[in-house]
Amino acid sequence: MIRAAAAVAAMAALFAFPEWASGIEGSRYAETIVRDMLVFAVYALSLDLLIGRAGMPSLGHAAFFGSGAYAAAIASSRFGTDELAVSLVAAIVVASILATAIGLLSVRASGIFFLMLTLAFAQMAFAVAFQWNDVTGGSNGFSGVRRPTLAGMDLSAPDTYYRTVVVAFALVVALVWWIARSHYGRALAGVRENERRMRALGYDTARIKLSVFVLAGALAAVAGALSAWSFRFVATSDVGLGRSVEGFVMVLIGGAGSILGPIIGAAAVLYIDRVLSSAVPYSQTVLGVVFIVFVLAARQGIVGLARAAAVRVRR
Amino acid sequence: MSPDLIVQQALNGISFGALLFILAAGLSLIFGMMDVVNLAHGAFYMLGAYVTLQVVRSTGEFWPALIVAPVALGLLGLALEPTLLRRLRGRHLDQVLLTIGVGLVIVDLIGLFWGREIRTLPLPPGLDRSIDIAGNAYPTYRLFVIVFAVALAAILTYVHRRTAVGALIRAGVDDAEMLSALGVDTDRLFAVTFAVGAGLAGLAGVIAAPAFALSPGMDVDALIYSLIVVVVGGLGTLGGAAVGAWLVGPADTFGKVLFPQFALALIFAIMAVVLLARPSGLFGRARIGR
Amino acid sequence: MTEAVLEVRELRREFGGIHALDGVTLAVRGGERLAVIGPNGAGKTTFFNVLTGEIPPTAGTVVLEGRDVTGMSAPRRARHGLARMYQKSELFDGLAARENVALALVAGRGPYRLGTAGTAAERAEADRLLERVGLAGQGLRRARALSHGERRQLELALALARRPRVLLLDEPTAGMSPAETQLITSLVAELDRSLTILIVEHDMDVVFRLADRIAVLHEGRVIADGTPVQIRGDHVVNDVYLGRVVGA
Q1: How many domains does chain B have?
Q2: What are φ and ψ of residue A87, in 5° steps?
Q3: Which chains form contacts with chain C, at 3 or more CB pairs under 8 Å?
Q4: Which residues in chain C are contacts of A192 at CB distance < 8 A?
Q5: Mutation target among B108, B112, B229, B266 for the A interface, most CBs of A within 10 A
Q6: Which pick of A166, C24, C53, C112 has the fewest CB atoms within 10 Å?
Q7: Entry pTM
Q8: Subunits that touch chain B (at least 3 Cβ pairs < 8 angstroms)?
Q9: A253-278 pLDDT, tens per residue?
Q10: B89 in a structural domain
Q11: Residue B287 domain-assigned?
Q12: What confidence tens digit (pLDDT) does each residue in C113-131 have?
């Protein structure tokens, strides 16, 4: 109950950020950073459904982030409407279809082979985005993406759009939290902990894995759409290996299998990528080193470290 | 397609395949021995190319790089394996993740040290002309690449089959646990294997440097191609790397000529199909661990 | 009255030239306790793997309650009332004992439910099952923190949770102390006769205490099949197996 209250309070604070931060210098910039952190938090949460909850390490998640971004961008220009629902549904549908196709082919593999399959398929998607100039803009990317309207209300102003992102983020967090506590979430944990035993108990694990793969893809597409609207641009890098790796780094550093973990991880990676990179030229090195340190010494991420510390304090 | 074009593209394909073989051999070796997919392989390759750039700048000569780069990369591999990878012995997925981090660091440091602009290297003097093949002028450097790869394959095969070190490596690829039980220092063997794998990647970088441009994204391209080759040809064996390289090389070359729009997607599709049908590749060792 | 609940006919399974199962034909009657014994490498675990559907046979059929399940996947067979206790416990190590059991208990209702897991009713049912296998009060302990014997108890609980019709016990007392062995053996002995049980075991005391019938497997074939008394007196069996074990 305390956690739920804290979460609601945090969401409210985020939502009201433009108000209480308006006097502070650099708040406009900060708002952009927070906005992008929230978008990537959605991405990381979606990937964590796979990595942390279902135990399916994917290096191809950018395929869904990117296809969602492209679909949202292209939909508004093709259908001639900026209505939020249209672009968002387009993003989710396209990514879900792609995830179903890739999932059907990949989910029977596990561990490193699953990793390589998802990588291969995502690179195919990247290749398509890169070369399908007419539709995606090819290597130049898709520019001029229009921010959505909601039932006529224009969401493009910075503060308004920021609040839209906060609401989307809050909804995704609520969804992930709900899944985690549900029978479905526990079944995912079962698949992660011991797929063989799950099958011996009568669970159709291949179908469960496919379902979470598509769900994660759909949520990644939501993040992709948000990203397209945020930057008003979709780049091929949004579908590339770097974006997939980035997601993995976020989940691992923050702490897989939790709600706070991917959020913290996204914030940390984004801080390094945006804020640190403008101050020093070696931000990617920092990111790499941090990642290595976590893989070696803090595999459960920041959340894991916090939990271990809490246990020690209690003693 | 005219016969001239076919010959030319065939040579291009074989030449590209030659480069892919040198590149993928190291990746295949590391996986075969240690069950680790070294995702820093592209970064090693890239470093090899940039070291070549440095050698050319400092000495004005290309040829020393053929020694300097592999040795430098080998030393790097020798330093990395015991300090980082060994701590994660048995945790294959985590080792793969670790190599991702290593790759990130290397690529960024390259950019810091040599800058992020696209650079080109001149062809080494002596190989910078073309000779007449089937009525067309064909660059001698590409022929050199083919010859070099074949020679390297021969040397590697000899070492692999006829020397004590090669025997150890063959045994290790087969069953490292057993080797350890027999008293072989597998720690040192793994370190050496990783170093050799890194060195081969660096060597590929040297060879590729005059033929391709040096740019920030080259590590990803190299990694993807070497993964495809290794998956198709067979994880863990030199022969597999050769088969894969000389399948993917020509396929990619002809694909780009015949249907440029989807050539890349086609290559990935081939990889995915092979992975699905035969997870250890066409000629690989079936060692599918977690 | 005693129809064959489980039947295998000419079951074969090959692994690259090795005939792990070389024509096994066996019928198990309803309520029977059949022990499958044999030296290491005789094919016992492969037999179980083919029965549960984790490995397909190279030839032959598996019939469960009159239904040909040879081509059926492992999950489907489990849903048709087949349960298994593995030789090496297959538990959800990172989850609490209670959650382990809960996953087994609710398996029948399917995983695609968004209702909250872990209700009070569910917890009570899980605790009852834990108590039944001798793990009363251990519900909150993580599976990996349990002792070897406790893990086997939990493994048995998972096998029993779905009220199976046919229970396969693969070396249930493997690696256990005499006291733990006693506990598990008593638990199995008390199981209702509506349940048909196949047991693979090396511990002959357990076998002779629990089994109505014994089938002896050797090099992938059934070389003897009869009551414990018959098997004890069988010369072939003594040569091949019992003699070596008992040290006659």
Answers
A1: 1
A2: -65, -40
A3: A
A4: 94
A5: B108
A6: C112
A7: 0.92
A8: A
A9: 999 999 999 999 999 999 999 989 99
A10: yes
A11: no
A12: 989 998 999 999 999 999 9
